[in-house]
TrEMBL record, chains A, B:
The keyword Transferase applies. GO terms for molecular function: 2-dehydro-3-deoxygalactonokinase activity. Keywords: Kinase, Transferase. It holds the Pfam family DGOK. This is 2-dehydro-3-deoxygalactonokinase.
Amino acid sequence: MNPDATHSAVLIALDWGTSSLRAYRMGPDGRVLDTRHLPWGIMRLPAPSTDGPMPASAAVGFELAFEQACGDWLRAQPGLPVIACGMVGSAQGWAQAPYLDVPADPRGIGAQLAKVDTHRGAMLHIIPGLLQRQGLANVMRGEETQVVGLIDSEAGAGGTVDDDLLVGLPGTHCKWVRVRGGRIVEFDTFMTGEVYAALRGHTILGRTMKDPAAPDDAAFQRGLEVAGSALGQGGVLSTIFSTRALGLTGQLSAQAQPDYLSGLLIGHEAAALRALLDARGMPSRIVLCGDEDLCRRYASALPHFGLAAPTLAGLAAERGLWRLAVSAGLIRQP
Amino acid sequence: MNPDATHSAVLIALDWGTSSLRAYRMGPDGRVLDTRHLPWGIMRLPAPSTDGPMPASAAVGFELAFEQACGDWLRAQPGLPVIACGMVGSAQGWAQAPYLDVPADPRGIGAQLAKVDTHRGAMLHIIPGLLQRQGLANVMRGEETQVVGLIDSEAGAGGTVDDDLLVGLPGTHCKWVRVRGGRIVEFDTFMTGEVYAALRGHTILGRTMKDPAAPDDAAFQRGLEVAGSALGQGGVLSTIFSTRALGLTGQLSAQAQPDYLSGLLIGHEAAALRALLDARGMPSRIVLCGDEDLCRRYASALPHFGLAAPTLAGLAAERGLWRLAVSAGLIRQP
């Protein structure tokens, strides 16, 4: 039986980041009918064949990836609206979507989509990023959609959204997003994930490391404890060298070093977050949203630094894409 | 006129690190008669030719580099003593020299040289590294020789050494070494230089940067100020992202971003150093020793964080090598 006949879609939604592209074919009420995960992040788009039907322009890689992600869905249902979030809207993306200032709410974000006419005739709507001018400048692109999805889930589950929520989005760059009354009011960015990868791959710390057979929770906890104790007073630029020094002196095995370093970095992040929240006021609740293993690490770190144990939410991008498509009037809910 | 005839050498000294090898031919009283700078750091040794006279062993790269550094000097004066400091004595080096525990003094260090019989018959003496067991484990290898050289210079200049000195050695890894009564009593390591290179070369921060025509002091100062202000409260994992965010929002040019990032990192290091010294007690004086541009950056950073303006010393490795060769009894001073 053809699923297109039984479940007619009303939206195609793309979560299009730096390193991958997720495509969702969505039915009424935002139910996901079909999902695709492609490796075509904006920094590694497919290369055109020299005799293909595509135009030879800077956009050709985007067109090819778009075709693979949802070309057949659009052929089956021409005219389906298409919405996207993430780095596809950055200066290095397909078309630049503006940054909106915080505070921002789902309605305001949905009202400012950028538009791209694709080669195959469909119109792609790109969700804007968010910009924080207050304090040190900060930007996000893609995470705003996850937070919108999370706000929507919370509202759907309990009927009301906590008045003062801190949403943590661990990843390459961990964003901590403050939500008050359903609006994104401020946020911080920690480059913890990308710094970890750079230290491991491109400094002397990686030289003595070996991959553990399984995550080494004890080594991770040891890293947290160093970051949170008087030993961590020299800060992250100093404590990370102990990964090597403890290894050289036989106090930390090669297999324990990766998770020890992870504990140090996430520990220093949690300590800094605690200091920021002490200055700004504690939220009523903390929610983590993202990769399961990473969320587990952060959930174990926060209480170590006197922060509330967080609740865990699944990935929320598809719900945010749906919610913003509705806000933007791309689909009419029954 | 042959310089060998007029200036008979009494020591060959090698400063042999990860990325380069400096060789000194030294006359009586430690005068440098000749210097060579070769690219043969222990991580990039010369490759043997397949039909050469060298033995096919793991040591062959070291033998070849050694021959290029001082083979002719040893032919001209067979039996000259040879001393070396640095990573050549590490687990990845030619032969492992032990780590000595701090506190350590020049006499103690000079008494514990490791020995390598070289293929050409000369004996190479390698200076041990230092190990700190107290607190978080820490090690150094090569910097101890610079500090010994500096202690010797200070004693030579004023007749006495300050009772409580802090020696900063900026570089790939910046060491801060506490010297009391002419002994190395404790030290800290900040991976600032290597972290800077990894962030610039292997994270998204490098993507928006361009090399400035000349060091951008204003951008560096701006980085220092952020690290030292309430804006820096999120710590280095957070503030570094402002390099990108300020760039994306037109507030920091591509050419200003490298020095801004340098200011952030050195600023966070100086802030942490200040915290450590507040806990341990201030030294009577701070001396910086190393690359001129880096020392200038640190000298400008320290007072920004309430630390004393440092005095600057030149590179001191050759003086330390000389001093330790004397301590070890490798040469007899007249």
